C-alpha cells in the first residue's frame, strides 16, 4: 500500500475500536477507528486508501482529489474514501482543517450509502443543520474516547452515522412522510390473512386510538371502524365464493367471533344471508 505523508504539520488523536470481531462474525458495517485531526496549515497527504473512511470537516478549507476529480471542501461538509482509491488531499495555509475521520472496515453496504447520498461517484456532501450533526458526531467521538461501550456499539454507531448523514445531506430528495390516515388504510388493505383491529393498528403505529380515529376521518371522511367493517365484509364475500370453508370459519377469519352476529351484519349490509350469497355467486 502506497502511503506517503508529505506534511507532519498536524495534531491527531486516534481511538481504535476496543476489541475485535472474528472474520466470520464481523458485521458488514462497523466503526473501526475514530480520529480527531487538527492541521496547523499547509497539510498535504496522498495514499491508496485501505478501506472506507468518512472525513467530517468542522472548519477550514482545502482540496480533496480522487479519480480525476477535484473537490473544494470546507467546514460543514464531508468527503469519503473508498477502498483502493488513490487520493490526494490538502488544506490551505491560512484556513487549516479541523475534522473527525471515522473508518468503516466492514464489507460495507452500497445501498446504505446511496440512501445517504454517498457513492464512489459522489464522495463529497455539503451538510445542513451542522450544529446538531456535529454534536451527534461528537457523542460518537466521546464514546470511543472513553472506551466504555458494548461490542454492539461500533455496529450500531456506524448505522446511526450513515442515517445522520442522510438526514443532514444538503440537496437530497427527502422521502415525504406519509399521512397517518393513509398508512392506516394501507395496513388494513394489505392484511390479506386477517383484518387488523383498531387497537392493533394503534399499537403498531405507536399512536393513541383518538389520534388514529381523527387522522383517518380527516383523510377519508369515514371512521376507521367503518372502513375495517367494510373490509371484513369484503373479505367474507371473497371467501364465500372462493373457498369451501364453513360460515363459522369464514366469520372467524374475518374477525367475527360470533357467526350469528356475522350473519346478521352480513344480511343487514347486503340484504341476504352469507349462505344465500354463496349460492347466488
Characterization of the model:
Helix content is about 40%, strand content about 20%. By secondary structure, it is an alpha+beta fold. Strand 6 and strand 7 form a beta hairpin. The model is unreliable at about 1-5 (pLDDT under 50).
Task: Characterize this entry briefly.
The protein is an alpha+beta fold and 281 residues long.
Keywords:
6-stranded antiparallel beta sheet, 10 helices, elongated, alpha+beta, Jelly Rolls, 281 residues, Arc Repressor Mutant, subunit A, 11 strands
Which class do the helix and strand fractions yield? alpha+beta
Distance between the termini: 75 Å
Q: Give the low-pLDDT segments.
A: 1-5
SS summary, helix count: 10
Calculate Rg over CA atoms: 29 Å
Number of self-contained structural domains: 2
Helix-strand sequence: EEEEEEEEEEHEHHHHHHHHH
User: Largest sheet, if any?
Assistant: 6 strands, antiparallel
What is the residue-mean pLDDT, rounded to a whole number? 86
